[in-house]
């Protein structure tokens, strides 16, 4: 799983990402967050972020990704059971509404990685225990590297994986 974990956050991006600090995480696509009433989490997104193919990342991107997530979510946590809806507040703010307080939501947010619409239309979220990552090479993510050869998911990978720097 180590190659999967390392490549996952190199090719993809999430609201927060693992970090070697006191909290164990840092902001990635978000710049701030707050918990409202223990069941609502609001994130302010970084502005002027683009997917690897150049399309903009914004609140609408979060909404469409979460629609696909709810159809076939990862199964390593309870998030899919507790997620009631995701709401767009404005172009750079989203709210996650849960059915009950969920103290490990930020941990799960590490793995809510976002993909382009062409990737979602082709593969969606896969309903596996792990995140979908990239089932084929292409400019589908938001990370600092683009998968140009091979594939890497939590339960399968090609013998060779090639990454190149993301020009965006």
Concise description?
With 168 residues, this protein is of the alpha+beta class. It is built from 5 helices and 10 strands, in the order αββββββααββααββ. It has helices at residues 2-11, 59-71, 79-82, 105-109, 117-123; strands at 16-18, 25-27, 30-36, 40-45, 49-50, 56-57, 83-90, 93-98, 145-149, 162-165.
Radius of gyration, whole Å = 15 Å
How much of the polypeptide forms β-strand, as a percent range?
25-35%
Number of helices: 5
Average predicted confidence as pLDDT: 92
- List the secondary-structure elements in sequence, H or E: HEEEEEEHHEEHHEE
Instruction: Order the strands across the largest sheet as they lie in space.
Output: 3-4-8-7
Please count the beta strands (DSSP E, at least 2 residues each): 10
Which stretches of 5+ consecutive residues score pLDDT under 50? none
How would you describe the oligomerization state of the chains in this entry?
single chain
Query: The biggest beta sheet, please?
Result: 4 strands, antiparallel
Fold and architecture overview:
The protein has 168 residues and is α+β, with helices and mostly antiparallel strands. Helix content is 23%, strand content 27%. The protein has 5 helices and 10 strands, in the order αββββββααββααββ. The strands form 4 sheets. It has a 4-stranded antiparallel beta sheet. It has a two-stranded antiparallel ribbon with strand order 1-2. Strands 5-6 form a two-stranded antiparallel sheet. Strand 1 and strand 2 form a beta hairpin. The longest helix is centred in the middle third of the chain and has 13 residues. It starts with a helix and ends with a strand. 33% of the residues are buried. The model has no long low-confidence stretch (mean pLDDT 92).
């Amino acid at each position: 799983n180590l190659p999967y974990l390392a490549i996952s956050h190199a090719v993809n991006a999430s609201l927060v990402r693992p970090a070697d600090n006191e909290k164990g995480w840092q902001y990635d696509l978000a710049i701030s967050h707050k918990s409202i009433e223990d069941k609502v989490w609001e994130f302010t997104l970084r502005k002027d972020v683009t997917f690897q193919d150049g399309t903009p990342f914004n609140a609408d991107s979060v909404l469409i990704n979460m629609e696909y997530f709810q159809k076939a979510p990862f199964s390593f946590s309870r998030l899919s059971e507790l997620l009631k809806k995701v709401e767009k507040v404005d172009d750079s703010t989203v709210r996650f509404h849960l059915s009950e307080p969920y103290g490990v939501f930020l941990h799960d947010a590490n793995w809510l990685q976002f993909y382009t619409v062409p990737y979602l239309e082709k593969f969606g979220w896969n309903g596996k225990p792990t995140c979908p990552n990239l089932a084929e090479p292409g400019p589908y993510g938001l990370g600092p590297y683009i998968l140009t050869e091979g594939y890497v998911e939590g339960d399968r990978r090609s013998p060779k994986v090639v990454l190149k720097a993301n020009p965006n």
